[in-house]
Amino acid sequence: MQIKKIGLVTLIFILHFLLITHPIFCSEIDQFTNREKYQDSTLDFTKILNQYTNSLILQSVHNFNENNQQEELTLSEIHQKVAFDIYMTTAGNRIDKYIFINPSEINLPYSLLFKSGQGAIQKWVKREENKPYWVYIDNNIYSNTYPDAFNKNVIIKIGDEFIGSDKVDHFFDQGYAYFIKSNFGLDDELAKDYGRDSEYSWYGLAAGGVFSFADLRANWGGYQFYKNLFIEENSLLIVSENGVVSMGHSFDWSEYVDWQFDELENPSFFSDIMKERIYKHIKENIDCYRKTYKFLEARDMFSLAERRDTFYLSEDLQTKKSNVAYFKELLTALHPE
Prior knowledge:
There is one protein chain. By secondary structure, the chain is mainly alpha-helical. The protein has one domain (2-333). Helices cover 47% and strands 6% of the residues. It is built from 14 helices and seven strands. The strands form three sheets. A three-stranded antiparallel sheet has the order 1-2-3, covered by helices on one side. α3 (46-67) crosses α4, α4 packs antiparallel against α8 and α8 packs across α11. The longest helix is centred in the first third of the chain and has 22 residues, at 46-67. The protein is globular.
């Protein structure tokens, strides 16, 4: 038993070392590069994404109804079990069924080994059949940081907003982690603190040099989804008197996604090393970024972060400054014409 413990500790240490020194376990979405090329031309993906998402939620409800004696469960127990089924169907992995013995223990090794950020919906979004609806920028500000194999996030349009494909998993994956960490929706502050800590560490700054406010916004949207599955007047799910769960209405991404899911409009802050790499990339591709800069400046898209909401941020983050005008300052320093 002691040998097994030592082996696990060693594995965790190696993974953590790799994560910090070479961020192969995370990737970021660049919504700055070539923004002028897709801002006004990208097809709206909302209807198609809604259809697929609703099919998975229906599958989750069916799984719950088939595998539980509902009449013996309280509403709280039904809520927790259905939430887990939705998490598993949308963002989880098969191995979670065997590892997820204590849902409250969502810690660093669990996140590294099993919460890969490649759930069913995100994988589906990036399928070839959906290519007409997404934008992929292969030469982007993170190209000097992440290997190509881990720099494959795409951008999709939901309503009037642009989000990275990673935000889908943040919604259903990290949103579920928030639900667990908040004692199943009873303590919002615990959820916010967990999000802050994970973004500072293995999901963000320590791993890849980027702290993403947009990730936290997507996490919070997913948390509200799980938290309110049954308790709002117009709740997504309904429980009959004998404990059978059904959908009260369809899920709609546009009800959750706002401009703060967008990495450009709600910018991150970067480590010094990441800033240097971004600067190097932009300098090497200065002509392209001059065009982007002029486009964004004309639409006043550098100032939106000043209006960032605070409801999804822990108290110590509410006044935390992102690199709000970093790209503007960078392009100005490089004397755009």
